[in-house]
Amino acid sequence: MTSPSGSYALVHRDSRPLGTLVRLASGATFGGDILAICAGPCSVESRDQIEATAKAVASAGANVLRGGAFKPRTSPYTFQGLGAEGLRLLRDAADRNGLGVVTEVLDPRDVELVAAHADMLQIGARSMQNFSLLREVGEAGKPVLLKRGLSATVDEWLMAAEYLLLAGNDQVVLCERGVRSFDAATRNMLDLAVVPLLHQLTHLPVVVDPSHGTGIARLVEPMAFAAVAAGADGLLVEVHPNPAAAVSDGQQSLGFEEFALLMRHLPVVARAVGRNLPAASLVA
Amino acid sequence: MTSPSGSYALVHRDSRPLGTLVRLASGATFGGDILAICAGPCSVESRDQIEATAKAVASAGANVLRGGAFKPRTSPYTFQGLGAEGLRLLRDAADRNGLGVVTEVLDPRDVELVAAHADMLQIGARSMQNFSLLREVGEAGKPVLLKRGLSATVDEWLMAAEYLLLAGNDQVVLCERGVRSFDAATRNMLDLAVVPLLHQLTHLPVVVDPSHGTGIARLVEPMAFAAVAAGADGLLVEVHPNPAAAVSDGQQSLGFEEFALLMRHLPVVARAVGRNLPAASLVA
Amino acid sequence: MTSPSGSYALVHRDSRPLGTLVRLASGATFGGDILAICAGPCSVESRDQIEATAKAVASAGANVLRGGAFKPRTSPYTFQGLGAEGLRLLRDAADRNGLGVVTEVLDPRDVELVAAHADMLQIGARSMQNFSLLREVGEAGKPVLLKRGLSATVDEWLMAAEYLLLAGNDQVVLCERGVRSFDAATRNMLDLAVVPLLHQLTHLPVVVDPSHGTGIARLVEPMAFAAVAAGADGLLVEVHPNPAAAVSDGQQSLGFEEFALLMRHLPVVARAVGRNLPAASLVA
Amino acid sequence: MTSPSGSYALVHRDSRPLGTLVRLASGATFGGDILAICAGPCSVESRDQIEATAKAVASAGANVLRGGAFKPRTSPYTFQGLGAEGLRLLRDAADRNGLGVVTEVLDPRDVELVAAHADMLQIGARSMQNFSLLREVGEAGKPVLLKRGLSATVDEWLMAAEYLLLAGNDQVVLCERGVRSFDAATRNMLDLAVVPLLHQLTHLPVVVDPSHGTGIARLVEPMAFAAVAAGADGLLVEVHPNPAAAVSDGQQSLGFEEFALLMRHLPVVARAVGRNLPAASLVA
Q1: B128: chain A residues, CB-CB within 8 Å
Q2: Mean pLDDT for chain A?
Q3: Å from C270 to nearest chain A CA?
Q4: What is the pTM of this model?
Q5: Which of A215, B271, C32, C266 suits A177 as a labelling partner, its CA being 20 to 30 A distant?
Q6: What ipTM goes with this model?
Q7: How far apart (Å, rounded) are the C-alpha atoms in residues B54 and B42?
Q8: Does residue A3 have a pLDDT over 50?
């Protein structure tokens, strides 16, 4: 469609028509009937914060804990993350609540460290074309969440994924998180049409981050519904005990109750397109 | 949120918190529990074409016939529409099949003519800031479908609607049809987050055009689902007896069977967010 | 290059390899060795304002007076221009100072009126794809200034010009005025590379509007230099007796002294690329 | 203007009103009266290629040799550069021709190696927000060329520079190389208005890359003129012995004669804005 088959041979749909199922050590899967629900704060801020959040999102039905220990920040003067200590807090909180862990790695020299704590390595939007990092992460033997670059075309994104597969790793999930636009009404422009488009072009699962994708907490639920209706294989949602006090991204984070509400409403939308939620699958 | 209340006082949500219900003479409504489904060809090409299409979309459950008689075309050498004759064909086909008519008016001097045949006047993306046309259409006493400009911000779009309301017409529906982007993978970038955002900012109903919004027929169904899940009050879908032979926009048009299939799948998604289809409401 | 020759046959360079010289009744030319310098306020506000401005820009070396009588305004609540009265004021001020007049026409029904007062009809960015207006202006028998749409591609822009030439008018000048971008640091993004690109693709002259193109008065002079160095056939510059008190676009307008300074500096840049200024040509 | 003073305190104009002069070990300077002219191939391909190019650009008047040894490539299947061997070839060729060397470093682990061969470390567009790399390069004690990200705002770009200064390095030059746009007519959209804007906002020198900025060889000369007229402190120009046979970026590269021609025409434009070329300064 947008690209001649062959230019990204390994990620191309033709190379695996039935699609790829990505499975974390924790059991969560991306690409099957059950949606993956990754939730948690933008940044790991403290043991209390991450523990409370892990408990809340797990009991609401999420199956993966997200949270940043190494943060890419536009300004050098803003909070850069807790680093290795953040990874340990994240791992502990996830383990105590039966969740997987997805967290970002920024530097090729940190891949081993992050891989030792996480079930899934996230490559952030600003790193999508950090080719050294792609190669290092590709060789780390852990599932990867590859976010779309700030203004990456679908072709460039698939080529970035091709670097990972070429390094021997086919456990790759693509994450649409909104692209740069001319309209400041939302933080980014969430490009949901890439969900079905990618499903035609590649065998890799596709998830959506409506939190970064809009930057506005009140838009997260409707865009989560839209993402699932468009065929997304899962969601990334920012959740914080007290969004107004978050050190980063508070404006787009859901509180515990808002997230619980979203998770109560989501199953009926998911079932409308033949999908189910992880919690629902446990209960059923 | 994005704009201080007051700058577009008439369209602002605060001026009518319960929302506006837009009702066509044919009975179709925008903004209530029942979705409006507008379907039809890009251009009215012939009596046979529009008759066949009207019959097909009506029997599949659409309640408004769309089709262009006056076409805005990038090149002066491409088909410019059948004009007044196209309007008559459109009206006849709609009447014989119990449908309303929405069609575009391009020139302020044609408003009276188009209003004599249509139930709803469409202002196209290229005309969103044609202020003479906005004033003339605002005074025509017919419901209006105001498409978003090719790269219009939400603020500019609401201001264009404000021109219509200021001219005395509050029967205005906003239509998201995708905006210009850097990625040629799709024809436009469908910005679904504006659906819930607009519902917060304005009392006017919001519909989505997944045909222009993606430019690719195979993406129309998933993006129609996503639009409804995001809270859209209706859809505009391009349908043609033989998309491969359409004089314009064939690549993004659904055939009759594809449209019927979409309409069979849509009710379950609509019900998941508390909405219903016009056909379903007739049956029930 | 970007488009197969033939798709816009009339404006294509091949149809007139030596280029088109556009000449106003006042004597100003676009496309020759002498640059056209169009200067004046965003809006005609009063007789005093336009008279003072005409005198100032003429004595600084401009040869065309610009100013809006019919204003396209995003909001219906802002100043919409003086209309016919503004046209008369503009004509009088220009005549008394030996200047041509370029002014915008928004509505096809106003073309005759505007053409009766102006030497050159401006089609604004928001009207670039107002095809009714293009046809009407194309038949008016006056030179045309066609501004680039807010996010128009070069191909779309050339196609809009093709409408004018197809209506029998080859006295068309293209005006780059900046396009919509993701960065709010400037009002628009001035795309100067279109100047040499258009000179390869079409025989029509190309001018640049650094005032709208940047939105910031202090950037006007360096971008005017850059435009001329890139090969522009002229400039449009907003000048106002008191920018801080302008009813529109004050932030991007030059005062009389700033404009005079620009005009004193410009000749040396112009001569560096083989061009001259109108004033210089009179003196020499 | 775009940002409150203080958010990027170290790069802000106020912290050094007279501007920063960046000086390479080879003697070339950025930010003074003499423009820096950096020329060379996209990729170092062979000893013969880089030697011939160094000789040609030096004799035409360039004072810095550019060329990639580590190449960031969208596809993993295209040429990735000669690596350490490329650095040696580049250094040798520059030394034999009295040129400085600027070359890109992609990986924080390669900073020491690249710094051992180069006079100036280039951070490419895709790495502008690679914060680990910024920190490592900031500590390397060599001048830095910081390219603007593919769709970076001016604020984000200045913040990236702030990382470098905060690491103790004030020898930083900003390079505009075009941003992503909706129009495929050119490869990128060259945003020349940032040149005077940055000169107001920061004390760091600003250079322009018209080769990447347009992607079209025939636009390089006019846009080089425009950049200098806008106040740029230097240029980056891609030059190749045989552009048609280049392994990368051939379409935008100048041949030796085209570059020599550009360099013969440039001094008169430079002098028009009070600048001079390195070669001219040697001769005079």
Answers
A1: none
A2: 94
A3: 34
A4: 0.96
A5: B271
A6: 0.95
A7: 13
A8: no
